[in-house]
Amino acid sequence: MRILATLAVLAAALWSSYWALAARGLETGLSRWMEIRRAEGWAADYTGLDVAGFPTRFVTTLTGLELADPGTGLAWSAPAFHIEAAAYRPHHVTVTWPQTQTLATPAETIAIGAQRMEGRLALRPGPALEVAAADYVMEAFSLASSLGWEATMARAELNSAAVEGRETTHAVAFAAEQMRPPARLVALLDRAGVLPALFDHVRIDAILGFDAPWDRHAIEDRRPQVTRIELTDLNAKWGDLELQAAGDLDVDGEGRPTGALTVRATNWREMLGIARASGRVPPALADRIEDALELLAGLSGRPETLDVALRFAAGQTWLGPVPIAPAPDFTIR
């Protein structure tokens, strides 16, 4: 009995020492990271740093946090930021953002609100802290800009997991519901006033290849850039308008895609009318596109549903032999 008690006391002492050393390491590591950022020209400040949760968890709280990246001109501030991990599994981390934050760009300041904003990350052991899997949830999310626009979203989820056997490749799923875009944007797109105020949903399932791993260097140095997109499914619905797409794209060093997507558009005439009214598509080109799409829709036997293949090449989006718009830019800034 005395031996068991001695072993228990020894185990408790060893665990306490481990927890204290690890907590001290967390404090020192975060402080050092801030110092390095300041040496690189960042604004990197906080008013408080605390590690609690003994004996089973590490709960790290940064208060009065301010970060500004001179390379992008982005600045983020938050009253508090929490990082939590089980003491026996420190590479599985839960991060929690506060209900109010501020993001500033060279052009505007955006107040961010969220009833819940949380991420769970599984990190590979090692100093780079590479993300092996991640799950993010946002609820009652809102944006309010100093330029006068506002936007809200009821809920969004982003899930990512490294693909086994494919380096720097992640399977990604994104879903967002009940989005209210800025009123100015809706007015610009929908001059006829036929769209509802709420965007029903966007859902995306894809495999994304990157030119570098997502680890701490993504914040410190440069964001990994997309090199490959294997789009399994995209589904977006706004009122009576619905868009679905799938296909594979390669992305060059300037963010320009090459490849093809198969697209299904329900009530496509209204979509084209919105594009025409917004001024993004010149009237003469819109007329030619509409004539071609009328023919394609007629061949399918469903005049309100359009199935087409869009090709991306030479920086343009092509419908058959006709360039209809610039190709999207997939650069992550």
Description:
The model has no long low-confidence stretch (mean pLDDT 89). The protein has a 17-stranded antiparallel sheet that branches. Strand 12 and strand 13 form a beta hairpin. 23% of the residues lie in helices and 50% in strands. It contains five helices and 17 strands. By secondary structure, it is α+β, with helices and mostly antiparallel strands. The longest helix is centred in the first third of the chain and has 38 residues, at 2-39. The protein has a domain at 255-333. The radius of gyration is 25 Å and the shape is elongated. Residues 1-22 form the signal peptide. Pfam families: DUF2125. It comes from Rhodovulum marinum. InterPro entries: DUF2125. This is DUF2125 domain-containing protein.
Structure, briefly:
By secondary structure, this protein is of the alpha+beta class.
Q: Count the beta strands.
A: 17
Question: What is the helix/strand order?
Answer: HEEEEEEEEEEHEHEEEHHEEE
Can you tell me the overall shape? Answer: elongated
Radius of gyration: 25 Å
Largest sheet: 17 strands, antiparallel
Q: What does the average pLDDT come to? A: 89
Number of helices: 5
Helix proportion of residues, in percent?
10-25%
Strand content: over 45%
Question: First CA to last CA: what distance?
Answer: 63 Å
Secondary-structure-based class equals alpha+beta
Low-confidence segments, given as residue ranges, are none
Signal peptide: 1-22
Organism: Rhodovulum marinum
Protein name: DUF2125 domain-containing protein
Pfam family, one: DUF2125
